Amino acid sequence: MPDNFYDEVLIDHNLHPQHLHGLPGATCSHAGMNPSCGDEITLHLTVQDGVIADGAFTGVGCAVSQASADIMLDLIIGRTVEEARALTALFRKMIAGDITPEELEQLEEAGALQNIARMPARVKCALLSWRTLEHLLEPDAENAV
Amino acid sequence: MPDNFYDEVLIDHNLHPQHLHGLPGATCSHAGMNPSCGDEITLHLTVQDGVIADGAFTGVGCAVSQASADIMLDLIIGRTVEEARALTALFRKMIAGDITPEELEQLEEAGALQNIARMPARVKCALLSWRTLEHLLEPDAENAV
Amino acid sequence: MSLSRKNDFPVFAQFPDMVYLDSAATAQKPAAVIEAEAAYYREANANPLRGLYDLSVRATDAYENAREAVRGFIGAASAKEIVFTRNATESLNLIAYSFGRAELCANDEILVAISEHHSNMLPWQMLARETGARLRYLECDSSGIYTEEALRAALTPHTKIFAIAQISNVFGRIQPIAEFAEICHENGTLIVCDGAQSVPHIPVDVQALNVDFLAFSGHKMFAPMGIGVLYGKEALLQKMPPFLYGGEMIEYVTREGAEYAELPHKFEAGTVNVGGAVGLHAAIGYIRSVGFAEIMQREDALTALSVEQMRRIPHIQIIGGDDPAAHHGIVTFAVEGVHPHDIAAIFDADGIAVRAGHHCAQPLHQHLGVPSTARMSLAFYNDEQDIEKFVNTLKTVRRRMGFAG
Amino acid sequence: MSLSRKNDFPVFAQFPDMVYLDSAATAQKPAAVIEAEAAYYREANANPLRGLYDLSVRATDAYENAREAVRGFIGAASAKEIVFTRNATESLNLIAYSFGRAELCANDEILVAISEHHSNMLPWQMLARETGARLRYLECDSSGIYTEEALRAALTPHTKIFAIAQISNVFGRIQPIAEFAEICHENGTLIVCDGAQSVPHIPVDVQALNVDFLAFSGHKMFAPMGIGVLYGKEALLQKMPPFLYGGEMIEYVTREGAEYAELPHKFEAGTVNVGGAVGLHAAIGYIRSVGFAEIMQREDALTALSVEQMRRIPHIQIIGGDDPAAHHGIVTFAVEGVHPHDIAAIFDADGIAVRAGHHCAQPLHQHLGVPSTARMSLAFYNDEQDIEKFVNTLKTVRRRMGFAG
Ligand SMILES: Cc1ncc(COP(=O)(O)O)c(C=O)c1O
Ligand SMILES: Cc1ncc(COP(=O)(O)O)c(C=O)c1O
User: Fold this and answer.
1) Measured between alpha carbons, how far is A34 from A68 in angstroms, rounded to an integer?
2) Which residues of B touch C (CB under 8 A)?
3) pLDDT tens across B89-107, in order?
4) CATH second-level architecture of A3-137?
5) Stretch (H or E) spanning D57
6) The pTM is what?
7) Of the candidates B95, B94, B92, B115, the residue with the CA atom closest to the CA atom of residue B10
8) What is the ipTM of this complex?
9) Among C93, C198, C220, which residue has the most ligand 2 atoms within 8 Å of its CB, making it the best to mutate?
10) What's the gap between Cα C262 and its chain centre?
11) Does A contact B via 3+ CB–CB distances below 8 Å?
12) For the segment C250-290, what is each residue's pLDDT rounded down to a tens digit?
């Protein structure tokens, strides 16, 4: 597939998402929505002793929002809540366009979304799952960790 | 007064109206209004045996509306109701710009208002007293003849 | 096909490679319109209506001549029936706020076609909330067809208003408005017609259709943004209370209240948009100079070309079906496995402007069971090459999203 | 005085002999504004906000950059506080319909300055009728002065809103809005400021004034017609229900209802007027390039010149008194024995545009005991020669109406 429209990584996560399924043992879930696009993603996490032991998502959306969710879960499963929060902050920094190369490295495959900022209408899509994660990790959120 | 703005006749009727006064024995009266200008003229007539025996007006307005009322009364006092109706129709014809020279003659001094049509905003002023007269002469008007 | 009209539109000189297929959202403007508005500001700009000087008379004439041009364009009986608004949305809100709140009560019903644009749906939701009237929906089949039987069955003795677009911005199908109007009137129901997508593209005659109200926007018919029209039958407008209150819509004001001006000024509060009206007048002149014969012939041919090509591409679903005659310049579609936002992004990368989302018709999308769609919509300034480029990109969409073919 | 700015305005090239003294009704447009709007239609025209393609991103940027320019121009804290409307009249109606109907009830009072333009009076009359709230008037003296004591005395625990213009279109006097705002807020009353005549002529800073709402029109500040602004404090706008309903102001719609979009889009239903906003942006740029220092210096000097000349002419009465400093570019007057319509006609015959009537302030005229007046109003594009011609004609008015002198 030589002329993929999006980055190979993004295309792949969209076509073959690893984490697009229910999560029976989830300790918390939250639905995030981009109502104007119709995108809707529900994020499910199993958090034990401050560590994100497992995670998954359900819902529909464009390639950017789906891939972003899948990549995010790849990145945060196995990390502590603290680490996940830090990664979320880094992701926002990247989208805002002021990330250093060292920081970018920490984001691993999520770096594939770096150029989404050139399509302003799509930034919301890229952020959807991360916003939803932030909400779940807020200390005082309903249904939170 | 060489550089009068309006026709001499109009200026004169505005400055020295003959008929601007109450009319104690009036058989009918009607208030006409150009609300957007603030012009307001009440027309009083004494009609006996189908003849306009006397008439007067009260109220405030611009030179065009005041002079038009005074000239109109000059013209219709002593005429029959029928004749007054016919003159009103002629006056409207004149304002609309399709009057013949012979017809114009019948309007006597009211012919001085012929050129008001070139000032569209002032047509209403010229017509005010005539509209009020029409109302009074309508067979089924309240307070009518 | 006759000569391309692209040269009349400066935006295509600016972007010669752009393929603009979002005219249902807003149309491009011919030089004649842009220049007419500019000329107004250079040669006749003043506050009209109360003008007692030359320039103001010019402005008044410019404005009222525009109104007369609109009257003639839609075949209204009187210029009093033409109210200038900002856009179709405001026109529809005006009906709901003024007519609706004065005339409807808790016992009444409002019937709205399920395919309506939010602008012809949310004002009725608001009206139902405010008056307690019941809001009901008339449903269409998957081709966007409403039958006369279904309409008859949906009308009740309480139905005061039926609201429907002559052409839906999703289906592109022309509805039989005259027939619907007759059915409504037999039932004592008023028909509100949303002409936003029809007035720019087909001849619309309000007396032939016998609609009670018609709303449309200038910007979709090659006029500037910021000017729209509400047509209403004189007897209805006459008895309606004002909507916006302020300067120029009164006869007389006291501390306690006001007497309102005659139609149509009663509904035009504040300083009016003469520049916009002049632009709309020029747009009507431009449409007339092209002529609906050419406009329709060209738009129908391009629509047919698009639909015929599209239905040969695998994994494409056209909303409203594959019959070219059912789509008047509007083809809404889905590509299996690809989200409409990704479709639009791919088209954009190829310099082709199409729209993706719910097209301000979410309840319709819920009714059809698709969360969102992509849409191409055209005007007579498009040409066969535009359609060819569109089809070529459409063929690549799935491949570029990583599908095998 | 520095160089004349007339050359910036094409209308004065078109009519070199015209003296335009009706800028309070609508201002003339500089070439920069006319051209900016035209350029938008040539280079960036699309339906913004939902755009997924290049041209639509341009349109969105053009529109939101205009909003940001307005924010900066009036010193608002956030662009969310800037709602684009059609004109000041619509802005004021929006407050009355949305805020007013949601927040007021029969026990409440609305206080309105008696000198208000109908656009800042009739919406409050409407609101009083709809809610049962009591409408009261704050009265000024014959100079147009409202004292702080009178305001304090008029406010009651029930007063929810005080509506007043920063500059009345009849008096031209600048009101101490910041002081009034403080008095209102101490009383728990919101202040609605009509900035239609102030924003174009003096620097206005909504945070320094601490007004709750500010309404103004683009067309009086050298921008195209059809674009206006409502400023509202974010917390107030946030809790207000929408006014117009339709496309672009929603997040999500179902058959039953809708979730509304974030500020300021919640209040901008339907396709927005990008061309008008771009024109307003250019007008702000133009005003900034001239600078308020020059604008005020020039307008104050011309006003002073006018008032000083006028008060020497017999039989002239200046509404609001003979102090030049009390008239900011607006001089309303009467000529003994001559009806204002005749005055305007005489000026028109000499090529001078002035206004006559009640200037959409009938209750003020009733309060002052004059049925109507004439008004000259200026902008920085006027020059001393304009004033000279105006004064020369004014001197002839009585004679030309047949008076001896
Ligand atoms: C003081 C004042 N307020 C409000 C308005 C209304 O402005 P617009 O007609 O542009 O809505 C005007 C101008 O006519 C005005 O002078
Ligand atoms: C069918 C239909 N109705 C109403 C509208 C609303 O038009 P506007 O946004 O110009 O008010 C549109 C366009 O967006 C439309 O397509």
Assistant:
1) 14
2) 33, 35-36, 119-122
3) 999 999 998 999 999 999 9
4) Alpha-Beta Complex (3.90)
5) helix D54-74
6) 0.96
7) B115
8) 0.94
9) C220
10) 27
11) no
12) 888 899 999 898 999 999 999 999 999 999 999 999 999 99
